[in-house]
Amino acid sequence: MKVKELVSASLKLNGIILLIAPVLIGVFLYLAWPLKAQKNNEIVVSIKPLHSLVCALTKGVTKPVLLLDGYFSPHHVQLIPSQVQAMQKAKTLIWVGPSYEQPLYKHVKTLGSVLTVQNSSSIHLKQLRSGAFWDACCGHQHGHEDHGHHHTVNNTQHESGNIDGHIWLDPLMMMQVVDVVLQHLKSLYPAHQEALEQNAKAYKKRLEKLHQNLLTQMKPYMGQTYIIQHDGNQYFDSAYGVQTIATISIDPGVPPSAGHILKIRQAIGRGEIHPKCLYAERQMDGMLARSYANTLRLSCSVLDYLGADILAGEDAYETLMQEYVDGFIVGMAGSPGL
Residue 315 to residues 168, 210, 258, 310: CA-CA distances in angstroms? Predict the structure, then answer.
């Protein structure tokens, strides 16, 4: 009888092990990131579109490590210990800055070599808009709602205002970023200056071609207005002639008030604004966005400004922007309630 009990207990234990083993392995792999990458983590880059640019510039010199995969918004991401360790061990960190990746700021302050893109005087950044409801024609704002989304900028040249950090949504802005990153890389790798310059020149040509292709695709939609889940499309609007008319939330982590949604609905009903679509964001609650779209009787399409499902590397940015425009066009062509 004891033998049977031991066998039975052993079988149960084996069953439990089989059940929890995949979970334990998953947890280990998650916490262990990026142990493999740390063998060559000379450069750590915060987000995928910026990482793509750095990969293109450092081709043949080194292989940068990507810090954030894009599944969570950098506005509120929680870093795990191995990500902090990767930054600490890196030769340099390249990031947009506290205007966008605020959770990184407390760690960045302790690092030696850091390139904060938003600090460059050669990049012309836009101010973060206050409120969440704008007049597309007149440019003034309605129904100001403060949800605490201030993107406070510390120790930068932009202390006088809040900065919109979504600069990669305009390929021409990324051409400015290329020059800034190139100078930083040349100081790190003086023996590879010629290679870095050639890589930068080639990548700029790719960005110009990308922009022209996207411009052609977006031409039929110039002048159209739309609503987005949170305000991060100013650079995209400027590049392709469209206009965010309102945003559902100021802070991606704070849901909008019922009063705000009602204001938008009433403005649409009175014919004061004519948005073609409500765009959900891959890093936010898509089901919630669709419910708002149904309430406002608008089509709904998903935009992924970080390329969560795109393979990281030098081609990632071009793929990201093409998919972004594809998603935008789907929304513009959609029917209410989709």
Answer: 14, 11, 41, 9
Asked if residue 252 and residue 103 are part of one domain, the reply reads: no
Q: Does the residue 86 lie in any domain?
A: yes
Among candidates 149, 155, 78, which has minimal Cα distance to 109?
A: 155
CA distance 323 to 230: 19
What letter does residue 88 receive in the DSSP assignment?
H
* Residue 247 neighbours by CB under 8 Å, 6+ apart: 132, 133, 227, 228, 229, 230, 231
The answer to whether 93 and 85 have CB atoms below 8 angstroms apart is no
First-to-final CA distance of the chain? 64
**What is the distance between the alpha carbons of residues 228 and 205, in angstroms, rounded to a whole number?**
31
Lowest mean pLDDT among 57-66, 72-81, 96-105, 225-234: 72-81
pLDDT interval class at 6 (50, 70, 90): very low
Structure tokens at 317: 């940015």
Total structural domains within the chain: 2
Side chain identity, residue 312: A
Q: Domain check: are 277 and 203 in the same one?
A: no
In angstroms, how far apart are the furthest CA atoms of the chain? 86
pTM: 0.79
Say which range, 58-67, 78-87, 165-174, has the weakest mean pLDDT. Answer: 78-87
Q: What pLDDT does residue 71 have?
A: 63
Q: What angle do CA 291, 103, 30 make, to 5 degrees?
A: 80
C-beta atoms surrounding 151 within 10 Å: 18
Range(s) of the domain holding residue 320: 220-333
User: Do residues 196 and 239 share a domain?
Assistant: no
Note the pLDDT tens digit of each residue in 112-159: 899 999 999 999 899 877 665 665 433 434 443 333 333 333 334 344
Indicate whether 26 belongs to any domain: no
Q: Are residues 227 and 269 in the same domain?
A: yes
Amino acid type, 98: P
